[in-house]
Specification:
Blueprint (H helix, E strand, L loop, with lengths): L1 H21 L4 E6 L5 H12 L4 E7 L4 E6 L6 H11 L10 H5 L15
Antiparallel strand pairs: 1-3, 2-3
Helix pairs in contact: 2-3
Length: 117
């Protein structure tokens, strides 16, 4: 009986140990965007929420900062900024994709004329 109990405890310990290792760690990144309004917020949060590795997105319109919780094993900061650009918005130094920006509603387009593609 003692051997069976020892074996069960060992199996449980191994099983819990392997589950603990499989839990993905997350990181948080914040960067400025060219978002302006509630439609921008909905678009960025909705589209980025579908991006591989992204777990949570929040755009604060008061300071135009997007916060993204992500799995660094599935994506990285450069890829996240590129995704924001493809939606049509600036992401820090990454300028909005011109075609995507031009497809945004007028109220969501930034006033500056310069775009790099």
């Amino acid at each position: 009986m003692k051997k069976i109990l020892t074996v069960l405890v060992t199996i449980l310990a191994i099983s819990f140990g392997s589950n603990a290792q499989s839990v993905a760690r997350t990181e948080v990144v914040k960067f400025k965007t060219s978002a302006k309004c509630g439609m921008c917020k909905a678009r960025i949060e909705g589209d980025m929420g579908k991006t591989k590795g992204v777990q949570k997105v929040n755009l604060d319109l008061s300071d135009k900062t997007v916060s993204i919780v992500y799995n660094p094993k599935k994506t990285n900061v450069s890829a996240l900024k590129a995704s924001i650009s493809k939606i049509g918005y600036d992401a820090d130094e990454v300028i909005a994709n011109q075609k995507s920006h031009d497809a945004l509603p007028d109220c969501c387009q930034k006033d500056a004329a310069a775009h790099l593609d």
